Amino acid sequence: MFSIFEQTQKHYTNQSLFTPHFFEQITSTSDFLKTLNGLSRPHDICLTKFQTHGRGRGGFDSTDINQDKKNWIDEKKQGQLFISYSLELTKMPAPELTLIIGYALCKSLKHTWPDTPFALKAPNDLYITNKKIAGLLIETLTDQNHTRLIVGLGLNIFFSPQNIISHADCLQSFINTPISPKNWDLFLSEWDKQLLWACRPFLLNQLPIEDQNQLLNAFNQFDGLIKPYGNLQELVNSV
Length: 239
Prior knowledge:
About 30% of the residues lie in helices and about 25% in strands. By secondary structure, it is an alpha+beta fold. A seven-stranded mixed sheet has the order 1-2-3-7-6-5-4.
């Protein structure tokens, strides 16, 4: 097992898409990026080993992977990813952008581990079977001159705190071979590409037909779904 923080730090040090900011510990990666709003850099990332006040959807004082309790603790094992992205947009995003970004994450993981049954729970929680392994928190910032998207990602790779949330698990539990630094770099490179693609001014019905079908299928694969979504509009109406 390798350090997710160190390998991810290495990846973002050696690329030019994002201006990186690295911390041993921080209150919240997303909150830090908000302090940069209005600066001229097009894209930033903030990566930390440990965050003390990460926030999930609904205002919970936790990383979105783990909304059930108010403390998300990695225990310094460095087996989880805590990262946020700040992306400059050309205009206000459509509401369904959260669905498209969730699909971009699912697509990136599927690209790297194609035999793993990834699924999405609306709007953008990532599951394998009935176990949650990742969560996204997506926020929009605007002022007179800028529109920025903040995308916070918490992902369990080697570790998930079972004593905190019973339906959480980690990626390695579902992959037969050890996750390697090479696999991880492959995932990050694909995720960078897919995230930037997702942040183009798409509406769901403007996506290529293949992506529309794959996106709908990713949400319909969720084990806890009572009734499959019949079409994209049903999915949009549910969030």
